[in-house]
Amino acid sequence: MPSFGENLRRERELRGIDLRDVSEATKISMRFLQALENDRVDVLPGGIFPKAFVRQYARHVGLDADRVVAEFVYATGGE
Question: Is the pTM of this model over 0.85?
Answer without folding.
Answer: yes
